Amino acid sequence: MRIRLLALATALLMLVACSSPSKSSTKTINVSIDEVLQQNVITRDITLAVSDTLKLTLGANHSTPYRWTADPKIGDGTILRQGSHEYFHGDTDRVGAPGTEVWTFTALRPGETTIVASYGPIVGDAAPSCTFTANVTVH
């Protein structure tokens, strides 16, 4: 009888462990400042699970009058939600050195959407010099 109870307890414990929700993870897209300066259009594809975090890192240089759009356009806000947005200076003391702009997004539900950001002058009506698009699929 004792062996049966032990076997039953072990089976129940294994069942509970297998049915626990999986942990969310963070996936990253990195685009260097060199890519930004050399390409007019940059596209990346990424697949996430619901509750995953997407960390989007785009090269930038705030010592120039060019910036990425602070709030990139999300094609379907019911699938993906923007969290934070920060600019980080480069790991150098050199004046005028580039850094990165970093956004986080959370996958809310299954579906497909896009994130579109533009890198352009903050003054005037000139067209952006670079457009970044992430094609996001959430399972």
From TrEMBL:
Origin: domain of life: Bacteria
Range of residues in the leader sequence: 1-24
Pfam families, per database record: Inhibitor_I42 (PF09394)
InterPro entries with a match to the protein in the record: Chagasin-like_sf (IPR036331), Prot_inh_I42_chagasin (IPR018990)
Domain Proteinase inhibitor I42 chagasin residue range list: 48-136
Record's protein name: Protease inhibitor I42 family protein
Keywords, ordered alphabetically: Protease inhibitor, Signal, Thiol protease inhibitor
Single Gene Ontology MF annotation: cysteine-type endopeptidase inhibitor activity
PROSITE patterns per UniProt: PROKAR_LIPOPROTEIN
